Amino acid sequence: MSNLQQSYNAGQTRGQAKEKAEQWTESAKETAHNACDKTANAAQSTKESAQHGQQQASGFIQQTGESVKNMAQGAVDGVKNTLGMNEKKK
């Protein structure tokens, strides 16, 4: 094989190796980008879930507060009735 042919083959091999390396690099970039997107989506989902849980807890606390208030008012009315202090409004 002549030196010219060997140089040509080496250039071909180098060009093919460079193209393959660029393909791998692009594939790695895409994989990293997809992983980043999935992480961002998971973070958003977690945030929304936490906000929903907070809203539910807030609603529960409000309902509990109303129930305690109503029970306390019932107890006060019961004591007033027992003592004959409950004023009947006309």
Automatic annotation (TrEMBL):
Residues 1-90 are annotated as: Disordered. Residues 16-36 have a biased composition (Basic and acidic residues). Residues 1-15, 41-67 have a biased composition (Polar residues). This is Late embryogenesis abundant protein 1-like. It comes from Raphanus sativus. The gene is LOC108805314.
